Sequence to fold (266 residues):
Amino acid sequence: MTIDAPTLSAWLARRESADARSRAPELATHAAALTRTPRVVHDLGSGTGGMMRWLAPVLGGTQTWVLHDWDAALLAEAAAAPPDGVTVRTHVADLAGLDAADLAGASLVTASALLDVLDRRQLEAIVSASMSAGVPVYVTLSVTGRVDLDPPHAADRALETAFNAHQRRAHGDGRRLLGPDAVEVAADLFRAGGWSLRTAEAPWDLGGGDRALVEEWLDGWIDAACAQDPTLTDSGAAHRARRRAQLRDGALRVRVAHRDLLAWPP
Ligand SMILES: C[S@@+](CC[C@H](N)C(=O)[O-])C[C@H]1O[C@@H](n2cnc3c(N)ncnc32)[C@H](O)[C@@H]1O
Fold:
């Protein structure tokens, strides 16, 4: 299923502040220290530019951001209002075809909330192009599959298992997305190339102040789990009602695990 640009744009807007407070700050500082000037950042799967708005102030000074995405409407939105001191260029293409020439002149390659929606071929293209460019790679907010709801309930683990299987499912065209395994696969590829690596946990920690985001995330989580395992349909519906009531009462917290990764050449 491909999500249309307005729906994806609204989802990205809803999650932007949670994303901003979840990325591990120590890796951002380290990425900034490794980035040579002039700062030319290539952001892969940039969507509407959330990573640029968050990282540009950390990098500081004048910067050029080259935003890569296969959705031209999202890129147009991102380019419409760049942060102070930032010049934006856009590149509409499937990341599966990314090569070193696309990253010419880069001083940093970034991505956020991207890896888990890629298949192995796309991930290998990104890692290979980045390694050829020979610049640091900073990838944030890759989902790793663990979800903890508070208060816990017995139904959570069955939904988690089915959701993760759905993330890894094969598509009609034979592609299999990496889902929660993607960040480990990326780390292995960088290690095999002799690159240095640092990772950090970057969980969404959501509560009453994130009600709209939690509601939308919960619907997506339960819908995908039930699509994967239809035997969960009835218990999933009951669980959705239970969790929504807790959310309305301010009695639900959600922790969604993510990992950030920073890799740099020898
Ligand atoms: C979950 S969004 C994250 C957007 C942005 N990085 C952020 O954190 O707000 C994933 C983005 O990757 C893009 N994308 C996914 N697969 C892609 C591919 N194979 N080639 C190009 N863009 C892709 C989508 O269009 C979408 O904008």
User: Anything to note?
Assistant: The domain at 5-146+175-205+255-264 is CATH 3.40.50.150 (Rossmann fold). The two ends are 39 Å apart (CA to CA). The CA atoms of residues 178 and 229 lie 19 Å apart.
